[in-house]
Amino acid sequence: MVAQAEFSDDRIDRVFHALAAATRRDILRRTLEREQSVSTLAADYDMSFAAVQKHVAVLEAAELVVKRAEGRERLVRADPDMIARARALLGRYEDLWRSRVDRLDALLAEPEN
Fold first, then answer.
1. pLDDT tens digit sequence for 12-57
2. CATH number, residue 98
3. Would you call 28 exposed, middle or buried from its count of C-beta atoms within 10 A (0-12, 13-18, 19+)?
4. Where is each HTH arsR-type domain found (predicted)?
5. Domain for residue 1, yes or no?
6. Domain tally for the chain?
7. Model confidence over 58-105: pLDDT tens digits?
8. Can you tell me the distance from the alpha carbon of 97 to that of 95, in angstroms, rounded to the nearest whole number?
């Protein structure tokens, strides 16, 4: 499929799975604004620290965030390049569907013989 040019099916699945949860989308948004420790992220959610770590791990597996160690802390930042690539992938899917709808519109607009 044209829309998958630079992503394997497995990679696409990881990205969409990562973006499927509201908490992960919020973590992504927050780490786009600035790099934050997992502890700082966890303080704002009504869930355990371990649960937030798991959410970060899902985002990291999808390559949407990068985690690095600084002393005892683990700092998380969004990867704007990967987010742009995921956005481009969605754009290709949108183009594919728009072309199909346009073809359907053209067929429906043809006069009957």
1. 899 999 999 999 999 999 999 999 999 999 999 999 999 999 999 9
2. 1.10.10.10
3. buried
4. 4-98
5. no
6. 1
7. 999 999 999 999 999 999 999 999 999 989 988 988 888 988 888 888
8. 5
Does residue 50 sit within a domain?
yes
Burial of 59 (0-12, 13-18, 19+ CB in 10 A): buried
d(CA 68, CA 19): 21
Give a yes or no: residue 4 inside a domain.
no
Q: 68: which strand partners?
A: 75
DSSP characters for the chain?
A: -GGGTT--HHHHHHHHHHHTSHHHHHHHHHHHHS-EEHHHHHHTSSS-HHHHHHHHHHHHHTTSEEEEEETTEEEEEE-HHHHHHHHHHHHHHHHHHHHHHHHHHHHHHSPP-
Distance CA 21, CA 28 (A): 11
Residue 51 belongs to what domain range? Answer: 9-109
Q: So what's the pLDDT on residue 111?
A: 84
